[in-house]
Amino acid sequence: MSYTHLSQNERYQIYTMLDLLSVAEIAQRLGRHESTIGRELVRNRGGRGYRPKQAQVLAEARSIGSRNAVCISPVIWAQAVDLLRVQHSPEQIAGCLRISHETVYQRVYDDSTGGLKGHLRCQKKRKKRYASGASRRGQIPNRRWIEERSAAVETRKNIGHWEAGTVIGAAHKGALVTLLERKSGMLFIKKMDFKHADLVSQAMIDLLTPVKQMVATMTYDNGKEFAMHESVNTAIECESFFADPYCSWHCGYRYWFALPCRCCQP
Question: Rounded distance, CA 109 to CA 128, Å?
């Protein structure tokens, strides 16, 4: 079997398992050779230890000049196009085929026929880039990235670390705000007529106030509906953190344990 580079998703998995498993066990879980994991931890380690976001940046920087980023075999690209046509995002395709999502975006936007653009979930003239504008970040003020969150949260050994998300209704009518505690799987849900930031923050405060002593951190995705996260911090006395852009799996735990509870039953 030919060697493929570690994906960003794999680097986050390595990070979450690092304090719990040995290098050999991590390699076995990921289906990788032990030397691949060992080399990754040595080459892409920073001053604060191994951090997945930093590791991805270091790996990508190292690859510049060593390969042509748009070179994909015809077989792999055919598979990528098939996945695009069934509404997979470039990030999902990158995880499945272990190619760069940036390469997929570049191929799509360089397509002379324009047909591939129609299969992107977000229809824009050009791909939105998060790293190029501080003004975009201003839409959610004073965000703290998940890299700043304590590594102890990943172990799920202590109660008090929550994840927030929203679910949009059919035809974009109505929404649900969901709050899940990472260790216990306790799930709170509240229905809203609109997904506005003020309504979302108030719904969160209403749900969490009775258990505020059990709330230490809240992790969000980058939806604008969480722009008033600081109001929640003040009312509940907790800290908020945000997943990296295009890395929704950082908040994926709430979907694994989305069990019904009293708050969401009629």
Answer: 12
